[in-house]
């Protein structure tokens, strides 16, 4: 028999080594390598166990799916992201930056579900019951079927589940709950893994859907072991800027529905409100056409949203002109400026400061906004206002060509539905032709306004 040897394993990725290391050589995480007693040279065998009649394997066509149907929460935007609602026994993880409104959203979800007559247990491991009750009173989330508990011990939470027998469980948050069966402080990988696996096992055994709140690290990833995202069925990310009231919920993983849906919400003084049609949130309210503005149609999941891009070009005497952007990629703006100088005849851009921003705090990361940025910069440079009826979307190459973008037909249909009768897209051919068409449309618009004044 071989002598037992000591091995060390990373709790994040499973990397093993014969020596302890403070940092995993595979995933580069600190403090995740632990000592694991391991017997080598011994072949172990397991006794087979006969499954019960209810758990015996059956042909897949005979498996019933009624228990896995989606049940609506009452919040249409949240149901859209989940694929139609919450599935019985599903484990859903919602992550987001501190203060973005995760607890407010889940409290609203719990209240809507409780209003339908289903019993809900809301476990707060970060706030006291009085604090949650105060927020519930402000947002109107008071219902008799909504039960509230402030617990940080996993065993006590399981006792609360046995006593209340809920149909929906909300735990806020999984990083602040600890188990006596695992060593370490709350939030450490071993504790998060033990708490999450226990709650998910309870969810599967009782067909109890569980909503878990997850903290994020400074680089935006979910805190805790990577195994947490593999264990749960749905991973949602709650995004938003503290300077704006707009919030987005995106599905990063969904075993019961699509992952390209986006839910839109707005933070108000009375809580969080869903925005079924956010078409006008990213457009300015100016009635008169102003130079340096152009509307594009961006895709947020399956939604096509009109977004206004604004540009300002100012003469400068500095040796290095400034390039200030907000809501768009700085590298793409620098590339578009270079293409406009070389391919569209705007030779004087190198002597001007260029400022580019979006309306409403939305961020445009897709290349489909390139053409709208180029038209806005050209409009500001020539001081000609683009008409309100014009919208542009398309990717610009270094050769000055306008390339097609994904879901171009959907973008065009949404633009026409909102009243944009002039569409600039890949049919323009080149960025120079697109800019000239926009300038011609600008001149025609001024003539129509002058004729209407007379």
UniProtKB/TrEMBL annotation:
Gene3D superfamilies: 3.30.230.10, P-loop containing nucleotide triphosphate hydrolases (3.40.50.300). One of its GO terms (biological process) is proteolysis. It holds the Pfam family AAA_25. Residues 67-216 form the RecA family profile domain. Residues 353-454 are annotated as: Lon-protease-like. Transmembrane segments: none annotated. The keyword S-adenosyl-L-methionine does not apply. A motif (RadA KNRFG motif) lies at residues 253-257. Keywords: ATP-binding, DNA damage, DNA repair, DNA-binding, Hydrolase, Metal-binding, Nucleotide-binding, Stress response, Zinc, Zinc-finger. The keyword S-adenosyl-L-methionine does not apply. GO terms for molecular function: ATP binding; ATP-dependent DNA damage sensor activity; ATP-dependent peptidase activity; damaged DNA binding; serine-type endopeptidase activity; zinc ion binding. Coiled coil: none annotated. ATP binds at residues 96-103. GO terms for cellular component: cytosol. The middle region has homology to RecA with ATPase motifs including the RadA KNRFG motif, while the C-terminus is homologous to Lon protease. NCBIfam families: sms. HAMAP family: RadA_bact. This is DNA repair protein RadA. The lineage of its organism: Bacteria, Bacillati, Actinomycetota, Actinomycetes, Micrococcales.
């Amino acid at each position: 028999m071989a002598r037992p040897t000591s091995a060390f394993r990373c709790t994040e990725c499973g990397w093993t080594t014969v020596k302890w290391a403070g940092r995993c050589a595979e995933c580069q995480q600190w403090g995740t390598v632990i000592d694991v007693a391991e017997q080598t040279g011994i072949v172990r065998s397991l006794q087979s166990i006969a499954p019960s009649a209810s758990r015996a394997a059956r042909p897949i066509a005979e498996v019933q799916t009624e228990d896995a149907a989606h049940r609506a929460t009452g919040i249409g935007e949240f149901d859209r992201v989940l694929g139609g609602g919450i599935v019985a026994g599903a484990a859903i993880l919602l992550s987001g930056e501190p203060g973005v409104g995760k607890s407010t959203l889940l409290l609203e979800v719990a209240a809507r579900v409780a209003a339908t007559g289903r019993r809900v247990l809301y476990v707060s491991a970060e706030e006291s019951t009085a604090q949650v009750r105060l927020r519930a009173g402000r947002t109107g989330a008071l219902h008799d079927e909504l039960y509230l508990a402030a617990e940080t011990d996993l065993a006590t939470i399981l006792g609360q589940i046995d006593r209340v027998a809920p149909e929906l469980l909300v735990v806020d948050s999984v990083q602040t709950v600890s188990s006596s069966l695992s060593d370490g402080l709350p939030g450490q990988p071993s504790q998060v893994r033990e708490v999450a696996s226990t709650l998910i096992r309870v969810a599967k055994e009782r067909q109890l859907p569980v909503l878990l709140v997850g903290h994020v690290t400074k680089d935006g990833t979910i805190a805790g072991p990577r195994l947490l995202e593999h264990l749960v069925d749905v991973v949602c990310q709650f995004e938003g800027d503290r300077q704006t009231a707009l919030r987005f919920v995106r599905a990063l993983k969904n075993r019961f529905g699509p992952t390209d849906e986006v839910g839109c919400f707005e933070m108000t003084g009375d809580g969080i409100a869903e925005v079924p049609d956010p078409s006008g949130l990213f457009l300015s309210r100016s009635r008169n056409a102003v130079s340096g503005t152009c509307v594009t149609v961006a895709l947020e999941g399956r939604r096509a949203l009109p977004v206004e891009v604004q540009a300002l070009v100012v003469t400068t005497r500095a040796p290095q002109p400034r390039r200030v952007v907000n809501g768009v990629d700085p590298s793409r703006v620098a590339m578009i400026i270079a293409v406009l100088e070389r391919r569209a005849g705007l030779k004087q851009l190198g002597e001007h400061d260029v400022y580019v921003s979006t309306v409403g705090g939305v961020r445009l990361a897709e290349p489909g906004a390139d053409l709208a940025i180029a038209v806005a910069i050209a409009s500001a440079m020539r001081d000609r206002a683009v008409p309100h009826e014009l919208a542009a979307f398309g990717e610009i190459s270094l050769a000055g060509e306008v390339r097609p973008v994904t879901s171009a037909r959907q973008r065009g249909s949404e633009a026409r539905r909102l009243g944009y009768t002039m569409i600039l897209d890949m049919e323009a051919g080149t960025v120079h032709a697109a800019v000239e068409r926009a300038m011609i449309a600008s001149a025609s618009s001024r003539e129509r306004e002058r004729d209407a004044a007379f």
